[in-house]
Design brief:
This protein is an all-alpha fold and 292 residues long. It has eight helices and two strands, in the order H-H-H-H-E-H-H-H-H-E. Helix 1 (3-35) packs antiparallel against helix 8, helix 3 (99-121) runs antiparallel to helix 4 (126-148) and helix 4 (126-148) packs across helix 8. It is flat.
């Protein structure tokens, strides 16, 4: 391998880790935009205000809201640079197994920019906001796969029993459903990102109960999955991590609900959803992938 290829290979763990961190941070900073009511701090797109890509002094939305929203947009650019750097490192290191994953990061981030624009131009339509979050979940999954292969190539494998593979797929699906219903809770709740933003026509108590039921079902399936025979050590380890994270996330969800969803707890809950999803994805990877 050439000198540049060796350097690129050494940089891969750092770059993929940075990419995963920034993808996760985008979710949390997006939450900061919502809970501070800054979703229309930059009321147009791709410019912040007509005639300027930066917030301008004296704009009607206020400097605080404008810079909160603009900061979230800047993070997307940082993400794009990290994705491009990772893609270059993948090519220089001759890791053919990582090329598609690295390319999807770039395409997905560009898609996030377009969805972000649609979200602003539709005055924070809750379905647009939810789609923005769901795309982030998909990109976090891809970044997790990328980071998990940072040292060694991996190949698809079969679980020792078909039941284990199906159980892991069911578990991952339920985790996604719980998170997706969570976006409907957000779309029906008070943190719209702007006082005039539309809300979904769901009773907040009703949709929250659906979300809670999905989480409880996920916890039950997690316990049954852990008790399955012939699980690999890595799978059991990630199930334990997932179980602890999900219990903490569920507890936090109940606390924030009964306290009237205060802003700080909403931010923690968003971070928790990211960590739960990463753990769920690592469980699936531990079942269907192994080192080449």
């Amino acid at each position: 391998m050439s000198k540049s290829g060796t350097i690129a290979n050494r940089l891969l763990p750092t770059l993929t880790g940075l990419l995963l961190f920034l993808q996760s941070a985008l979710v949390v900073t997006g939450g900061a935009v919502r809970v501070t009511g800054s979703g229309l701090g930059c009321p147009t797109w791709p410019e912040c205000v007509p005639g300027s890509y930066l917030p301008v002094e004296g704009q009607a939305e206020g400097a605080f809201h404008a810079w909160i929203e603009f900061g979230n947009r800047l993070l997307t650019f940082a993400l794009l640079f990290a994705a491009l750097a990772t893609f270059i490192a993948v090519f220089r290191s001759r890791r053919r197994d990582l090329r598609i994953l690295a390319a999807t990061q770039i395409l997905g981030i560009l898609g996030q920019g377009v969805l972000g624009g649609i979200t602003v131009l539709t005055d924070l339509n809750p379905l647009a906001v939810a789609s923005h979050f769901i795309l982030s979940i998909a990109l976090i999954a891809a970044a997790t796969s990328l980071h998990s292969r940072r040292h060694h190539p991996q190949v698809r494998t079969s679980a020792s029993q078909v039941r284990i593979s199906r159980f892991s797929l069911l578990h991952l699906t339920l985790a996604f459903i719980a998170i997706a219903i969570g976006t409907l809770v957000t779309g029906s709740g008070p943190h719209a990102g702007d006082v005039d933003a539309p809300r979904l026509d769901f009773g907040i108590t009703t949709i929250t109960r659906f979300h809670s039921a999905a989480v409880w079902l996920l916890i039950v399936v997690t316990v049954l999955f852990f008790l399955s025979p012939n699980l690999r050590f890595e799978t059991k380890r990630w199930i334990k991590i997932f179980f602890i994270l999900t219990l903490l996330q569920g507890l936090l969800g109940y606390i924030q609900y009964f306290l009237g969803v205060p802003e700080g707890l909403v931010m923690l809950h968003l971070l928790g959803s990211v960590l739960v999803w990463i753990a769920a994805w690592r469980i699936r990877l531990s079942v269907v992938r192994k080192h080449a």
